[in-house]
């Protein structure tokens, strides 16, 4: 699959959303999770999505990742239309282009670290070898361990290795450090930064931790289902420099 | 506690699919038990009512001929209550339009009023008018077979004389519930009839005026049965008494008793299987429920609910499921019980069914099911009670997994990650996996029992009639006669070949055991009638000694080859001799004692006589041959082999079909119950994993593989033990239902194995598909929000 890239200055647009809304029907009540989002994301950039709990961050990320579809508006990833309701199209999109990292890791307990990664490499066309992906997150020596034998931070790094092993075009992370303490959180963020730097993967990280915003190229703020501000960091901090 | 009750009903509603599967399995167990028990109870009750109403005798006394006055001497024996005498006679029956030979037994009834004992049960028509010598009553079964109605008539040949008789009624008597021709294998209502005639008329026809040749009597409550029998034998010796016998040996009663005993033997087996499976399923579901509700339980306790309340909460739920299972089981069991009872009443030819479902049985089944339910869930409920609130608030740490055995032996690289997941999931809960395999295996095994009867009966028939009893037609003479009778038969057109035969009634004794049989004697080297050993090799008939079939020797007489058997002939000069047992043979149908014709005649001291013949005939001349035989007054009976086989199938087919139906139905319930539950369990346990995989880009088909692959593996793994178990189960059935009428060899056709495997595979596939549909509705986003 070749991705035609639209040039805008020196950056190419990978995601393009126009007026997307998401309404959840809760019986009589309508919950407006997104109220019209227009957004472009560029190739290779590291974006942090900031916002209070309930502001719609996860909803937006899920739509970008093809896990959910908007109620109205359009989402394009390159030339893929992600507003489609066709489950098989979305599955193929996820399979070919997206890597996910979640707050609660979502590893398969019955598989070792290497096998959790292999779960993804087995269904992709040009993956990293699982061991190499684990080395990228500094877990080369824990490949044969089961999730139960690892700490939370290690489990999250396995999840990152699993997400990047297929060489995804985008890496979507929903509160990847949410369940971790500061020290382990930094190790995980370093892994993300390294992947972004070395593989050039477009990375979107959701957090409610303002400090993390300093390591992003761009920071997008959401509140009440709308974009309330976009900042461009002139200098990205390294994860180790973040003040928590 | 209202809130807790709401939770109870919601939980049940949430688990409705699984609860229903468990209820179905439980209900099957209860239904199976109640079906057998109510049938057994109802048959016993109906039989006893029939026996009582019609005054079934306790002692049966066949003799040659005794003056009526002797009856008074019998009545004076200590312990004898009532005595009734009658005349019984064999006869040939000629039915217009029916070419095959028909024989029968006619019994006298008093000219005026009812018999004292073994009274007639009148189904249609009326009883015989006093003084009429051309009226008869015939058995209901015989009437049905020929569509006879009161007013029809038939011809009989009795004592060599042909008579036309008018049917005035149809009915039966407790002594002929099971109507088997003497020496016959199976009831054949078309070719063997039971008739009743006025005493005077029959005495005149059979030259028994002022005499009787059969007495029946009842005992007082405190009578010594054996002492009475001995006294009777002493009194009747001069009149050609051939030995009185107790009800226990009365052929019809004995058949009923043995068949009922078999039913009882089997009644416990299947319910136990069901309750075991139900207990296991309940265990799985409740354990999982308590597992997923850890935090809820902890919260309840934190709010101040007591351990007892928590335990009662789960127990209530279990009891509701059990209660539903029991109620459904009672309904289904009653329905099936009525059906099975009706089939058996027809099969046994009892005149009426008095169906009853004893409250005791219902209580028994309920109690057993409750206990099984409790045993199955005790551990899970205890876990809920033991749970410490503080502990439960923390999430459960991820489960520890290991690499599977198959991977350790070096096949790891052959397996994809999903395949490894399947193997490790199975290995993670080995007990549950094993029990699931066991449950499915039980279903496979049960299915095999449904077809086992058919397989083995076909085999027995093939063996008996193909290897051993190969005549087209067996002819019996009224009295022993010379060999010229055979020559005469052979000269008939269409008779291809014949072999002589002599049968004599005898009492065999060894140590304190005794048994009455017909000894069959034929010539060594005979090819129509042959004997086979347990390896199905043809056994050469020894020149001396007696040959017994294994069942008669081992189970009834307890005698071994080489030991001396006391043979009391009950015919002619009634010689008593000690004869060595020369060999044992295999004979699955009936019992048999065989001798060389010459040796038997030496023993009888009657010269070279025969009493019948086995014939090969040309089918094209069958009608003429039958007609010819009918016209010979010296021929009393002929048996056509194919008809004998057919009549057997007629008697057995309905019970067999019913059992196949019930076994298949119940096995499918088990298979679906186990597989569906297992699939649902796996789905709840794995939904998070499976949703994660979907997020990673796995398709629905690919994640189905993980879930259904696990089930498929379990189902396939259950096949070998299931088929093995089925064989063992059939083996158990075979050994527990053997009796004097037949021994059941363990024969299972390949088709039966295939049938059992196929039905379970289909049932498993259907249950899996039901669950597969739920996979399509997995909520991908929900799973990402929550921790495990
Ligand atoms: N499945 C759902 N059904 C109903 N409302 C939902 C659902 N998912 C999210 N919401 C609502 O949508 C809004 C945005 O949710 P979300 O995107 O998860 O916020 P964030 O990730 O920023 O905390 C919230 O008000 C939330 O309650
Ligand atoms: Mg969120």
Give structural notes.
The complex is a heterodimer of chains A (about 240) and B (about 800). Chain A is α/β, with parallel strands linked by helices. In chain A, about 25% of the residues lie in helices and about 30% in strands. Chain A has 6 helices and 11 strands. Chain A has helices at about 55-65, 85-95, 115-120, 130-135, 150-165, 180-200; strands at about 5-10, 10-25, 30-40, 45-50, 70-75, 80, 100, 170-175, 200-205, 220-225, 225-230. Chain A starts with 5 loop residues before the first strand and ends in a 12-residue tail after the last strand. Chain B is an alpha+beta fold and about 800 residues long. Chain B folds into 3 domains: about 50-255, no CATH class; about 430-470 and about 645-788, no CATH class; about 470-645, no CATH class. Chain B contains 23 helices and 22 strands. In chain B, the strands form 4 sheets. Chain B has a 6-stranded mixed barrel. In chain B, strands 13-14-20-17-19-18 form a 6-stranded mixed beta barrel. A 4-stranded antiparallel sheet of chain B has the order 2-10-1-11. Adenosine-5'-diphosphate (ADP) binds near residues 51, 58 and 59 of chain A.
Descriptive labels:
heterodimer; A: 244 residues; alpha/beta; Rossmann fold; 5-stranded antiparallel beta sheet; disordered N terminus; B: 788 residues; alpha+beta; 6-stranded mixed barrel; 20% strand; elongated; binds adenosine-5'-diphosphate; binds magnesium ion
Give the helices and strands, then pairings.
The complex is a heterodimer of chains A (244) and B (788).
Chain A: E1 6-8, E2 11-26, E3 29-42, E4 46-51, H1 57-64, E5 72-77, E6 80-81, H2 87-97, E7 98-101, H3 113-121, H4 130-136, H5 152-164, E8 170-174, H6 182-199, E9 202-207, E10 218-223, E11 226-232
Parallel strand pairs in A: 4-9, 4-10, 7-8, 8-9
Antiparallel strand pairs in A: 1-2, 2-3, 2-5, 5-6, 10-11
Helix pairs in contact in A: 3-4, 3-5, 4-5, 5-6
Chain B: H1 2-14, H2 16-53, E1 59-67, H3 70-75, E2 80-86, E3 88-94, E4 102-109, E5 121-125, E6 135-139, H4 140-146, E7 153-158, E8 161-172, E9 192-198, H5 199-206, E10 211-219, H6 225-236, E11 245-246, H7 251-267, H8 269-292, H9 294-303, H10 307-348, H11 359-386, H12 389-393, H13 405-411, H14 417-428, H15 430-468, E12 473-481, H16 484-490, E13 495-510, E14 513-522, E15 531-532, E16 538-539, E17 546-549, H17 550-557, E18 564-569, E19 576-585, E20 593-596, H18 597-604, E21 610-617, H19 622-630, E22 635-640, H20 641-695, H21 700-737, H22 750-775, H23 780-785
Parallel strand pairs in B: 4-9, 6-8, 14-20, 17-19
Antiparallel strand pairs in B: 1-10, 1-11, 2-10, 3-4, 3-7, 5-8, 6-9, 7-8, 12-21, 12-22, 13-14, 13-18, 13-21, 15-16, 17-20, 18-19
Helix pairs in contact in B: 1-10, 2-7, 2-8, 2-10, 2-11, 2-20, 8-11, 8-15, 8-20, 10-11, 10-20, 14-21, 15-20, 15-21, 15-22, 20-21, 20-22, 21-22
The structure holds adenosine-5'-diphosphate (ADP) and magnesium ion.
């Amino acid at each position: 699959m070749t991705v035609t890239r639209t040039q805008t200055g020196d950056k190419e647009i990978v995601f393009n959303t126009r007026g997307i809304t998401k309404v959840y029907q809760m019986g009589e009540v309508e919950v407006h999770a997104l109220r019209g989002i227009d957004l472009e994301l560029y190739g290779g950039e590291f974006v942090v999505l900031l916002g209070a709990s309930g502001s719609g961050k996860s909803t937006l990320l899920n739509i970008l990742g093809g896990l959910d579809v908007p109620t109205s508006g359009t989402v394009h990833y390159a030339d893929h239309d992600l507003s489609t309701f066709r489950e098989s199209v979305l599955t193929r999109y996820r399979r070919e282009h997206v890597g996910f990292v979640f707050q609660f890791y979502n590893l398969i307990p019955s598989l070792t670290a290497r096998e959790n990664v292999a779960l993804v490499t087995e269904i992709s066309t040009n993956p990293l070898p699982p061991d190499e992906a684990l080395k990228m997150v500094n877990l080369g020596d824990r490949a044969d361990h089961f999730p139960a034998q690892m700490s939370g931070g290690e489990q999250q790094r396995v999840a990152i290795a699993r997400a990047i092993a297929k060489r995804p075009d985008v890496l979507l992370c929903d509160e990847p450090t949410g369940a971790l303490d500061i020290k382990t959180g930094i190790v995980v963020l370093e892994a993300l930064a390294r992947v972004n730097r070395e593989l050039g993967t477009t990375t979107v990280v959701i957090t409610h931790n303002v400090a993390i915003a300093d390591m992003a190229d761009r920071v997008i703020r959401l509140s009440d289902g709308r974009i309330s501000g976009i900042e461009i960091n002139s200098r990205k901090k390294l994860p180790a420099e973040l003040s928590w | 506690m209202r809130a807790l009750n709401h939770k109870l009903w919601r939980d049940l509603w949430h688990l409705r699919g699984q609860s229903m599967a468990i209820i179905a399995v439980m209900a099957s167990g209860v239904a199976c038990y109640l079906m057998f028990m109510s049938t057994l109870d109802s048959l016993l009750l109906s039989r006893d009512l029939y026996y009582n109403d019609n005054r079934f005798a306790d002692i049966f006394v066949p003799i040659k001929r005794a003056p009526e006055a002797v009856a008074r001497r019998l009545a004076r024996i200590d312990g004898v209550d009532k005595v009734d005498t009658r005349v019984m006679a064999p006869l040939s029956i000629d039915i217009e339009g029916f070419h095959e030979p028909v024989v029968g037994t006619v019994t006298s009834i008093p000219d005026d009023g009812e018999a004292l004992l073994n009274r007639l049960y009148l189904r249609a028509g009326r009883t015989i008018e006093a003084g009429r010598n051309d009226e008869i009553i015939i058995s209901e079964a015989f009437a049905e077979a020929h569509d006879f109605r009161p007013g029809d008539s038939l011809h009989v040949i009795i004592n060599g004389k042909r008579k036309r008789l008018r049917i005035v009624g149809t009915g039966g008597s407790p002594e002929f519930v099971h109507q088997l021709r003497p020496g016959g294998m199976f009831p054949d209502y078309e070719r063997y009839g039971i008739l009743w005639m006025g005493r005077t008329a029959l005495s005149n026809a059979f030259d028994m005026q002022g005499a009787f040749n059969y007495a029946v009597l009842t005992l007082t409550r405190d009578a010594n049965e054996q002492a009475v029998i001995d006294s009777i034998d002493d009194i009747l010796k001069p009149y050609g008494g051939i030995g009185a016998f107790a009800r226990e040996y009365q052929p019809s009663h004995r058949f009923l008793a043995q068949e009922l005993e078999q039913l009882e033997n089997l009644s416990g087996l299947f319910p136990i299987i069901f309750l075991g499976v139900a207990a296991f399923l309940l265990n799985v579901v409740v354990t999982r429920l308590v597992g997923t509700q850890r935090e809820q339980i902890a919260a309840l306790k934190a709010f101040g609910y007591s351990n007892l309340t928590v335990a009662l909460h789960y127990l209530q739920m279990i009891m509701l499921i059990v209660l539903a299972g029991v109620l459904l089981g009672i309904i289904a069991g009653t329905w099936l019980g009525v059906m099975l009872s009706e089939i058996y009443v027809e099969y046994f030819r009892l005149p009426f069914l008095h169906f009853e479902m004893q409250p005791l049985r219902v209580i028994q089944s309920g109690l057993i099911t409750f206990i099984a339910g409790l045993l199955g869930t005790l551990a899970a409920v205890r876990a809920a009670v033991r749970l410490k609130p503080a502990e439960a608030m923390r999430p459960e740490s991820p489960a520890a997994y290991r690499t599977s055995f198959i991977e350790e032996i070096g096949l790891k690289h052959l397996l994809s990650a999903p395949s490894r997941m399947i193997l490790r999931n199975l290995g993670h809960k080995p007990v549950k996996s094993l029990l699931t395999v066991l449950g499915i295996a039980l279903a496979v095994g049960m299915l095999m029992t449904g077809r086992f009867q058919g397989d083995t009966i076909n085999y027995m028939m093939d063996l008996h009639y193909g290897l051993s009893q190969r005549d087209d037609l067996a002819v019996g003479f009224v009295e022993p006669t010379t060999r010229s009778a055979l020559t005469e038969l052979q000269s008939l057109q269409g008779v291809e070949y014949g072999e002589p035969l002599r049968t004599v009634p005898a009492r065999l004794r060894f140590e304190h055991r005794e048994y009455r049989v017909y000894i069959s004697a034929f010539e060594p080297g005979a090819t129509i009638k042959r004997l086979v050993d347990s390896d199905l090799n043809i056994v050469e008939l020894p020149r001396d000694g007696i040959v017994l079939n294994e069942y008669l020797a081992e189970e009834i007489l307890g005698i071994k080859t080489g030991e001396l058997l006391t043979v009391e002939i009950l015919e002619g000069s009634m010689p008593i001799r000690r004869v060595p047992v020369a060999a044992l043979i295999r004979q699955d149908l009936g019992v048999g004692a065989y001798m060389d014709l010459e040796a038997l005649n030496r023993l009888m001291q009657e010269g070279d006589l025969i009493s019948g013949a086995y014939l090969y005939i040309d089918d094209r001349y069958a009608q003429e041959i039958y007609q010819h035989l009918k016209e010979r007054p010296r021929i009393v009976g002929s048996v056509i082999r194919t008809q004998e086989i057919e009549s057997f199938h007629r008697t057995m087919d309905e019970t067999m079909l019913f059992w196949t139906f019930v076994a298949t139905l119940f096995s499918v319930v088990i298979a679906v119950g186990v597989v569906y539950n297992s699939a649902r369990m796996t789905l709840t346990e794995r939904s998070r994993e499976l949703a994660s995989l979907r997020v990673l880009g796995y398709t629905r088909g690919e994640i189905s593989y993980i879930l259904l692959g696990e089930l498929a593996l379990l189902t396939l793994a259950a096949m070998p033990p299931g088929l093995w178990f089925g064989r063992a189960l059939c083996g158990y059935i075979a050994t527990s239902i053997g009796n004097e009428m037949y021994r059941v060899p363990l024969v299972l056709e390949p088709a039966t194995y295939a049938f059992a495997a196929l039905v379970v595979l289909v049932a498993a596939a259907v249950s899996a598909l039901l669950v597969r549909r739920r996979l399509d509705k997995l909520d991908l986003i929900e799973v990402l929000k929550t921790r495990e």
